[in-house]
Amino acid sequence: MSYKTIIKSLDNIQSRQEETYKFLHRNPELSMQETQTVAFIKEELVKLDYQVLEIGGGLVGILENGEGPTILFRADMDALPVQEETELDYASEVDGVMHACGHDMHMTASLGAAWALANNKEAWSGTYLALFQPGEEIAAGAKAMLEDGLLEKIPKPDIALAQHVLTTPEAGHLGTKEGPFLSTAASLKITINGRGAHGSMPNLSIDPIVIGSAIVSKLQTIVAREVDPFQFAVVTVGSFQSGNQANIIPETATLRLNIRAYDEIVKEQLISAIKRIAIAECEAGNCEKEPDIEVYDSFPLTDNDAEITEHVTNAFKDHFSADKVVNYKPMTASEDFSAIPRAFEIPYLYWGFGGFTANQSIYANHNPKFAPAIQPTLRTGTEAALVAILSYLGNK
Predict the structure, then answer these.
(1) pLDDT at 396 over 80
(2) CB 233, CB 283: distance < 8 Å
(3) SS3 of 156, please?
(4) CA of 394: how far to CAs of 72, 124, 320, 388, in Å?
(5) Is the predicted pLDDT of residue 346 greater than 70, yes or no?
(6) Which of 84, 244, 299, 320 is the most exposed, fewest CB within 10 Å of its CB?
(7) Which of 58, 20, 66 is nearest to 39 (CA)?
(8) Residue 20 and residue 104: Cα distance in Å, rounded?
(9) Do residues 285 and 370 both lie within one domain?
(10) Is there a single domain that holds both residue 273 and residue 308?
């Protein structure tokens, strides 16, 4: 039996897959709260005779099928705190929560691949690991699974694979990128500790708004004057909150920042510079206490292995045709899957596939109107997963 026969077998579950996708879209759960989603996926995998382990808020389905490599394929599960505005007949039924990033598509495609492998075991050999990860949106899920013993609880994979539905290329197409694909990122919260006073008595205050404004201005020099011009870096102040009355100088001010880079060293350079500037400006402003600085939502660099990228890209071109496989440029989005293959010390590949047809209005991931076309998107994602997996596990 060839892998084409396995992929053809997906015809038998297409309508069921579409209903699964709609069910998951209607019933989203926020990061690290995916209990009903986990229960649903576990039930589906158990039906297929997978050994299922719940780990760190997620789960792994293990299917052993003789000698051969061990391949891990990851799908993320969490939704976003977004009020859906798609007007779909299968729109979210949870107020203020929506699958606005396509994780429902990822889960459905992964379940489809799991079904095809379980029902065509004579066509491949090795061990397949279907990993469903929680908390990707807040960079917590990969870490949680590792902290709960993922490395010890499942067979060590030889390689790891993952995919994501994106706005480009057109639905039915997909793409890969060797090397850095998604940026490393982190967020920072800076709390300036000033001294409150009446607005008419500024001499008695240590004004955190003035100090915060100086910090914001100085932060703009990091990329312009400290980072190598041939390196990519972004420093964004997304929130500046302080006070609530015109005639009251507040006690504190809080800044929230986000940074991006395609190099872990540059990421640490940005964090170090931000801390240095915040501390120095608070000292210059006569603060009696250093600012409180918290680094959170830290995402690793998604850095695709060259050999795996070439291998899987060739498999995609053979199956989908070369004109349907694009070479992505690096993207400034970020995600935390990379922490898992890094912990295993194995190579990995993360690719994208298009979600919008030519006649659709395109809304970006995380937009309340994000609504990929179910087909051909779902079939493309499922086939891509299978082609990549079988390029290693399939019987020659």
Answers:
(1) no
(2) no
(3) coil
(4) 14, 4, 17, 10
(5) yes
(6) 244
(7) 58
(8) 9
(9) no
(10) no
Tell me the C-alpha distance between 392 and 395, whole Å: 9
Give the domain extent around 221: 184-299
Domain count, the chain: 2
State the amino acid at position 360 in one-letter form: Q
For residues 173 and 208, state if they share a domain: no
Mean residue pLDDT across the chain: 97
Residue 214 · residue 367 · CB < 8 Å? no
Pairing assessment for the beta strands 292-299 and 58-65 based on DSSP bridges: unpaired
258-285: b (≥16 Cβ within 10 Å) or e: bbbbbbeebbebbbebbbebbbebbeeb
CA dist 261 and 164 (Å) reads 20
Task: Please name which of 260, 255, 262, 177 lies closest in space to residue 222, comparing C-alpha atoms.
Answer: 260
Do 100 and 157 form a contact (C-beta atoms < 8 A)?
A: no
Counting Cα atoms < 13 Å in the Cβ hemisphere of 170 gives 6
Please, which pLDDT band fits residue 286 given cuts at 50, 70 and 90? very high
Peptide bond into 134 cis (omega under 30): no
Please state the pTM of the whole predicted model: 0.91
Whether residue 290 is found in the same domain as residue 307: no
Q: Do 355 and 237 share a domain, yes or no?
A: no
Task: Please tell me whether residues 37 and 149 are part of one structural domain.
Answer: yes
Contact in structure between 330 and 209 (CB atoms under 8 Å): no
Q: What is the CATH number of the domain that holds 144?
A: 3.40.630.10
User: Of 217, 241, 235, which is closest to residue 271 (Cα–Cα)?
Assistant: 235
Question: Are 295 and 373 contained in the same domain?
Answer: no
Residue 386 near residue 6, CB atoms below 8 Å: yes
pLDDT for residue 30 is more than 60? yes
**Domain end among 299, 327, 354:** 299
